Amino acid sequence: MKKIVLVLSSAILLISSVAKAAACESGHWVESVMDDGSIVKLEDGTLWQVSAGDTVDSALWLPTTEIVVCDDKLINTEDNETVEAKQIK
Asked: How far apart are CA 80 and CA 25, in angstroms?
């Protein structure tokens, strides 16, 4: 019985991970970074407000930096950095 529960729990975690991965959108890049990293504009015109604790990373992102958007995170795939961010436009 414990093995069945363990297998089911593992399957649920796997499905959850796949669903989260499906929510990610690649193919984006930084168009500009404003306000010392507080705002990131992507090539599609979306604006993202970066959490205060993460601006130390986003402030250093350069135009054309490749980005993956996952819900409330921007992932810099070139430097393997992730920042918490909220889409504001």
From this structure: 16
